[in-house]
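Record format v2
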Amino acid sequence: MNATTAAVPQTSSGISNAKLGVWLFLASEIMLFSTLFTTYIVLRLSATSWPWGWTALNVPLGTLNTAILITSSVTIVMAYARAYDRDVAGFRKWMALTLALSACFLVVKAFEYGHEFSLGIGPSTSVFYAVYFTMTGLHGLHIVGGIIVNSGLLYMSYRKDCWEDPLFLGRVEGAGLYWHFVDIVWIFLFPALYLL
Amino acid sequence: MSQSHADSHGHGHAQSFLRRYVFSVDHKVIGLQYLFASMFFLLSGFALMMLMRWQLAFPGQAIPFFGRLFPADLAPNGVMSGEFYNALGAMHGTIMIFLGIVPMGVAAFGNYVLPLQIGAPDMAFPRLNMASFWLFLPGGALMLGSFFLPGGAAQSGWTSYPPLSVINPGQTVWLLAMVLLITSSLLGSINFLVTTANLRAPGMSLMRMPVFVWGEVVASVLLLLAFPPLEGAAILQLMDRVAHTSFYMPKDLVILGSHYAGSGGGQPLLWQHLFWFLAHPEVYVLVLPPMGIVAEIIANNTRKPLHGYTTMVLSMLSIGVMSLIVWAHHMFISGMSPALSNFFLVTTMIISVPSVALMTCLVFSLKGASIRYSVPMLFALGFIPLFAIGGLTGLPLGLTVTDIYLHDTYYVIGHFHFVVVTGSVIALFGGVYHWFPKWFGRKMNDTLGQIHFWGSVICMVGIFLPMLPMGLAGASRRLYDPTAQMHNLIVQPLNVVSTMFTYGLALFQIPFLWNFFHSIFRGEKTVENPWQATTLEWACPSPPPHGNFEKTPRVYRDPYEYSAPGRKTDYWPQNEPA
C-alpha cells in the first residue's frame, strides 16, 4: 500500500471498485474472444480447404504490428509508473507515445485491409477471410476503444484537480490492464491467422 | 465505503426533474425504471401471445375486434398470416425473456433491493448503472418497434437458428437490439458483483448475506460469462447478413431452388452451440433471483430461520458452475455424437440435484411454522409446487431417449412455461407485493392481491397443463395451423382450453394493475418495517432517502433470526445490537 491508494476509501474486499470492475470486464472480454477463437477452430477443422496464413496474409506487416503493440504495452506501463510517482510530465510523455503507437497499429492495419480490398478480397470471399476480417476487425474496434480511454486520461491529466483525485491512478491502472488484454488478444491472433 | 458514490453526486442537492427521475444515478430510481419498463414489456409480450393463442385455438378464423386493425399483409381480412404468426412467436420469446423477466428479476429487484440488503448507500458504479438502463430501453424499444420497420420483426424464433435466420427478413434489427441488451446486462452484472464484493456494511460477511443477494450474485456471474459468447455469435450472424460471410451457411445450400450466393463452408450447428451456451445459463438467471425472492418471503412469513441456509447458498453456487456445461441438452435432436450427448445427459441429471436441494430447503422451511398467509406468502407458497412441476417435467427432456420423441412437441412449451411463468413470474409478483411498502411507503390492497393470486394461478395452470398431454400425443410446437396434421385433431380441444385460460389470465391482471398503480398514490400508508423483517432493507425509511441509511448500519447476525428464544419480539434485525 502506497500513499496514493491509501487515500482511497476501504472496500469490503480490499480491492478498489475500479480494479475489480476492470477485471470482471476483462473476464467477459475473454469469453467474447474465446467464442471467436472457438469459431475459428471449428470452421478450420471442418473446412475442405484452408489457406496457410503466410500465403494469404502479409506476415512482415503483421510482425511489425505485433512489435508495435508489444512496445505500446511497455510504454503504458511506463506511463503508469510515472503517474504512480506523480511525475505529471513523464506520464503525459509516455501516454502520448502509447497513443502514437496505437495509431501506428491502425494505420498498418488499414494498409493491409486496403491491399486486400484492392485485390477484390473481402469478408465474403471465403470462410478464412470471414474469420480474418471479423476477428481483426473486432480487435481493431477494441484498439479504438483503448485509444478513446487513453486520450481521455491524457486529457484529464491537464486538469489540475485530477492529480488530487485518489481515483485517477486507479483509472490509469485499469486502462493499462485493458490495454495489455488487447495486446494479448493480438498475440494469439497473429500466429493463429498469419503463421498457422 | 462509498467512494464512487460520494464523488459522483452530492447528497441533498436540489436536482432537476430530468436528473432525478429520468437520467438518475440513484439505484432506487433505476430499479423502479427497470420495474416499470419490464412490466410494460411483460404485458406487450403477453399481448402478442394472446393473438397467437387465437390462431392456435381457432385457426383460419378472423381475430375478433383487433383483426381489422392490422395491415393486410400481416392479417388479410383479420386472419393472421403465417409470417405474422412467426414474428409473434419470435418476439414473444425474445421480449418475455430478454426484456421482461430477466430485467425484472435481475435488474429491477436487484437494483432496488440488493444495495439495501447489504447495507450499501448505492451501487458501486452509479453512472454505469444509469448507462445500463439507457442501453436497455433503446434496445427494448428497437426490439418492440421492429414490428413497424420495413421487413417487420424477426421471424426465426427467439433461438434464431441459421440458415433460416440469415435468410429471413427482420433479423438484422433483432441482432442490433440484442447487442444493446447484452451490453446493458454486462454493465449491470459487473455492477452487481463489484457492489456485493466491495460495498457490504461492516459485519456483513458473505454467509450473512440474504439468499436473494446470493441469487443475484450467481445470476450476475452467469450473465457476465455466458452473454459474451452470444454477443460474439450475434456479431457473426450480423456479418453473415450484412457482409455476406458464411459463418453459419453450409456449402451448396439451395434456397427455393437457387444456390445461396455466399461462399459457404460455415457451420449452422455452431450457432446452436453458442446460443445455448448462453441460453441455458439464462434459464438459471431467470430462476435464481426469483428463488431468492421466495426464500426472503418464506423466512419472513414462517417467522423462523430458513432451513439450510448454507445448503441453499452452496446449491446456488453449484448450479451456477454446472449450468455452464449442460447447454447441449437442448440439441439432442440437432445431430450430435452419442458420446457427447451422454456427457450432456449426465451433467443435466447432476444439475437437478442442487435444484432439488434448493426446493427441499424451501419446503422444510415451512415445517413446524405458524405461517402468516400474507399476499406475498401466497405467491411464495404457489411457487413451490408449481415450479416443482416445471422442474420434474424437465427430467424426460434431459434424457436423450425420451427427448427425441418430446423435443418438438408442446410438452417442451408446457415444461418451460411451468418453470418460467408459474415459477419466475409468480415469484416476481410475490416480490412486488413484498417490497411494495419499501418502494412507495404504502401497502397494496390485500383483497385485490388475493383475487389476483388465485385467478392468476388457476389460469396459468389452465394454460400450461393441457400442453403436456398435447405434447405426449405428438402435437408439434412449430405449427401455425395445428389442424394441418391429422393426429393433432384429437387434442385440438385442449388448445381451445389453453386459449380460454389465456384470456382469463389477462382479466386477472386488471386487479393487479389497478392495485399497483392505485396503491402508489392512495395505498394505506405504512411504516419502516411493516412485515417485521430482519434484513437490512427494512432498517431504513420507506421509501429510503438518497444515500439510503442515515448512518452505515452494522451487522451483528445471520439474515433470518426469527423467533429467537428469550426475546420480546419474534424478529431480531441484523443490525440490532445484542
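The beta strands of chain B are 254-255, 258-259, 442-443, 524-525.
Chain B touches chain A through 46 residues (CB under 8 Å).
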